[in-house]
Structures are given as C-alpha cells and as structure tokens.
What does this fold into?
Amino acid sequence: MKIVLASNNPDKVKEVKEILGPLGIEIFSLKDLGIKIEIEEDQPTFEGNARKKARTVFELTGLPTIADDSGLMVEALDGAPGVYSSRYAGEEHNYEKNNQKLLQELKNKPEPHRAKFVCFINYMTETEDEIFIGETSGEILKEPRGTNGFGYDPLFKPDGFDKSYAELPSEIKNKISHRYKALVKFRNYLVEKLKKQNVH
It folds into this structure.
C-alpha cells in the first residue's frame, strides 16, 4: 500500500516511516514525488490545516494522503502557541527562536507550566476523510535540554518522565509522542479496513 505524506519536513517523514513502515506501507514524501509546493497553514484550527494539506496533495496525486498539523498548547498562555507553533517567533520557522520566545512569555507565569502536544492527522482518499487525534501532556522546562528531536522537544518534559522529549531516545519518544498516538489510531483504522476487505 502506498500513502503520500503531505510534508517536506525530513524529521516528520522519518518519524512516520518508523511508525507505519512495519505494516508494509510505503510512505512517500512530497520530495519523493518531485512535488514542490508550500501549502499555507492559514486555517484557525489544527484540524482545518491538516484537512487543507491532505486535500491539496490528494488532488495533485490521486493517491491516499495523510497530512498532520500539530503543535504545543501551553495552559498559562491560553493554549498558545497552538496553530502558530512552527512560526511562533516569525515566518522563518526557527526552532531556537520559537523556544526562546516561549521561555520569555512564561517568565512571570506561575509554575509548573502545564502543556500538551497535540496532533491531528487527516487521511484523505476518494471515499475517506478521517481525522485521528493524539495528545501528550507534560510541562515546560526552564531551559532546553537534550539534542534529539526537533521543535519544542528540548523544552517539553512528558508526564511520567524526568527527561525532555529531546533527551529521550527516539524509540521511546516515538512510543509516547502525540504524533505516535494519532498514527497508532490511524494504523488501527487501516488494519481494520484491510481485515474487512479480506473478509469480503
């Protein structure tokens, strides 16, 4: 089975391949297919952005497509950075600047700084338009820790761990991440679908 991942983010592509690969699913990034587009994430919700990206790429390729929109929601900041997570400190999508801005915004807020990562995945085919949601709760650290991962990973300490996402080996992070949880729901959906096809 072939699925297009509507992303050019190499970190994201790697993570998705690691999680869905064992099912025998071939994942293609936009780059793999020679598609050069930047889809503007201008919707007010994660779900809206995921749907927009999936629909755009599905219409271009005609292949089953998944797109995700994910981000960090911090309680003390009323859910910010939210849909603006990747461009919190500006349009250049600079991980370090985003992290610095987040720490700055939280400076005078009472601790602990509770937060959650959320991921919305949209699966789009000719007949399907499904949303799968994953969430991981935790708190924001006072300073970045670790060199694995990307984005806000060095600042996010998931519940039940004393390490940041960026200090955890990828095989552990992949088992607790918001994207993993959403992808597992998607994987289970595919497994059920394939079972039904085999029955008929």
Remarks:
- The first strand starts at residue 2 and ends at 5.
